[in-house]
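OP here, attaching both records as promised.
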Amino acid sequence: MQDILEKAKIGPYVPPIDIEDSATNTVPKILRYQSRKYGNKKVAMRKKSLGIWQEYHWEESYAHVKKVCLGLVALGLHHGEKVSIVGDNDPEWFWAEWAVQSVGGVAVGLYVDSIPDELQYIINHSESVVVFAKDQEQVDKILSFIGKSPQIRKIIYWEYKGMWKYEQPLLISWGELEELGRKYEEEHPGKFDELIDQTKPEDLAIISYTSGTTGLPKGALASHWTMLANAFWELVAMPWSDADDYLSYLPPAWVGEQFFGIAGGLIAGPRINFPEEPETVTENLREIAPKFLIFNPRLWESIASTIQAKMIDAHPFKRFFYNRAQTIGYKRADAELAGKQLNFLERVINKVADLVVFRCVRDRMGLSGLRFGITGGGPLSPECFRFFRALNVPIRQIFGSSEILPLTAHISGKERDIEGESIGFVAPGREVRITDDNEILGRGDGLCLGYYKDPEKTAEAFREGWYHTGDAGLLTEEGKVIYWDRVKDLLELSSGIKFPPQYIEGKLKFSPYVKDCMVVGGKDRGYVSVIIALDYEICSRWAESLSIAYTTFIDLSQKDEIIKLIREDIRKVNRNLPEAQRVKKFANLHKEFDPDEAELTRTRKLRRTFMEDRYKAIIEGMYSEKKEVDIEAAVVYRDGRQAVVKTVIKINYIEE
């Protein structure tokens, strides 16, 4: 491991597990090592159920993994076979994956909000022979296409509600599986240790399917070494330990949770907390008050919008003091980034503002104990970064992909180096190169092994040892990487000027009234336009506070007052953009962007090509003299039903 550490060249922190040691060079081996180290003296996981935290010590977690692993062996699972897992963040999700890997199998994560067709594609493409499904909803999805997936031998569910009368022979409960494992252990003592000893670093551990922004998802192959090397470098760049609490909230199907929560959690040994329900995450977060937290940009933006929305609704007295404190906070944040110091009086005022205002805000949002928070899965807008910095919430950017994570990170100890304009420095153990057309290339330990059953895409993305990210950016003289956008998504206006739509979208989404947006341009278009998807909850509360009557989302989105509100926020963004990149027209959509309608990926990234085709009438309207557009939009419900919405969308100008 010394050779690996010498590559890092930063900081004194050394992760507590030697991933090159033969006793700890695979995921199951580390699980066994940690369970023997901590036993029943330390809580490994806890899940809130019916308002009570259910705790599982390391010894108990290990026992569950053992029984599930041997149960799978009893069912005939062999080395190299694939097992899909779909469900919310639960201990059972983690145990199932570790059990599969202990057999020598390969875990395939599925997103809990996937529709049946999406589940069917990944289960069949990965050739999964067993599926772990949390509850009745997920089981029903899988049973809906079971005739088209003949390779499935068993479906294992871990939540019993609603499952009592199912008589499908493929179904087996978690308890029944563990009982099979217990009996198998009685007949084959020592088999579990034997299986773990047989695991190798080069064995395939997971297939992590990409978000599919450009087509069907690709299955990125990760070995045990891939997982551990990426987790190792994350810990070197952003240290955390067994004294920390970790909130597992991001989907385990996402590669970030795989490398942070599942592999990183094993190496660092924190207490892993699972929220009771997605709807209670804010409440649970406040109770846990973690020192370390990873959210994607959408979640950080949601927290920022929630804070701003609460202040809109707050008593004028509270709002006055919050606004004054925020002004002071921004001044301090800007001074830190400029490498300057506030004078004595300003420092005193800042301390008072933090004690009286910001401390309460952080506590209400569960961020009071945060040593640092991480944003990953896409760039966070500089405005949002600056907002949290003003609140004294330390956020760091980490950038990477299913193929290599991290590639860059805010790893410097200098506060002025941790800012939102960049995605950080090149991460330890990584190399970054920028091509002539500004594409970011990366390489280093833990690079994925290619794409499952897709040699053409593998050859295209991995060339001469470099992974071609498809992202555009630049590398500064200081060693920071500036992210622009996807190379294919960089747009060019008729004037020849190029601009990054995602960068502008990030700025617009900082508005509490904007949930999503899509910036539009093109070689045959002379200016930038944008389609806005409102945050209905916040906009409706704002409208009600002013006694503005409306009936539906469609009606509210086209109200003159709402249009004026959004116009003002776009103007604020325009002031900080080059004149050629400023938004000239916008249209408020009649609905939110929806992954169930293929508008977003399951990681909530825009399917831009699909969207441009779907909303072609609106886009053409924004590049004509029209003041409104009649549209008919198909709406797909979660149960597969379809409906058609007919409405009028106003085309709105941004006057200078």
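Record two, same layout:
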Amino acid sequence: MKQLEGVLAVNQLKHIGGGQVFVNELVRELNQFGCRVTYWNGGRTKELLANIFSKKTKFIVWNYYSKFPGISIVLSYFLKKQNIIVVHGIWVYEFCSSVQKKYSTKNDIKNHYIAMRLWMEQFLYCLVATKLVFVSRYDRSLFYSTPLFFLFKGKKQSISYCGVNRKIYFPVNAFRRNELRRKIGIFNDDIVLLMIGRIEARKNYLDAVKILYDLYKSNINQNIFLYFVFSHGNSNDIEYLQRLFKIIHTYDLSMHIRVVSGVPVGGNAIYYQIADAYLMLSKEQETFGLVTLEALSCGCPVFGYDSCATPEIIQDNKRRYLFTTGDTHSVASGIRKYLHYSEFQKRLLRDEALKRSLLFSWQATAEKVLGYRVSHLDRLHE
């Protein structure tokens, strides 16, 4: 492999979530490749500029969600650095949403102005980019659905799926699983459904409550529980959390809901390992869904909607796991059928899911981002 003299990885917003994991794992892999990597994670702008001016810096990987100081990336362009932008479709969501709205108040007009300014900044960033990196085909489709972004189709680009840290996310045997469940207070005959992520409407936790209600009313097992493991931090939507609590009380399911928060990075693995099924219910703007891959890597089957990037991860027996978006009854029926399988059948399906997850790795991601040493997974990333 060709030695890279210097890579500067820039992350706009330090947070707990898939984007943060992406850049953390990318830096880790590049260090293992023997690259000289400098990681700027939202510190002082002076430090960022010093690294941009450094002659040792050849590649700059920009990972951001909304806006970023434009002068930095424009400066790196004139200094002839290799600007690699990791695109998250959620960047441009505000603009695409605002152009469809009617403007009846001054606040609407103000929000549209802010969204348009954001779009203009992002257009400029892409204009000076050497390469665009998407985390899924769905991510790429979102990007090119943005007004005038089709002009960037001639740019060098790649689809670099996420990976999973297998030292953290791995399946456990039945004995260890029961041991972990007892520590959390779960009995062997309890059924555990799971969702993990930030508190925001995009994750669609409300449908999970409806699925739980469907399963509970079918008398599949009175000891069925839905675990929400929420990320902590300023990115959570408290108003959406209040809506979630309201629907929980409406369905009278308070005794069957468990809410967990404050779990450190990587500490969520235990919940995948003890769960019977993971729910992936995002309807839009989920450009990859790292939790899906983490669940599969722990041998936890994933049920949800055939939308966003989920079908790019779950390709085997899709009809068994993925259903029409919004059809909570079908998702519940799919879970119900799975729970009635024998332990032998369940183990075969878990092994099948684990095998699929092995096609994704952070090493392949790093290689695709920088364009060096294409691995045997290259066919997956086209």
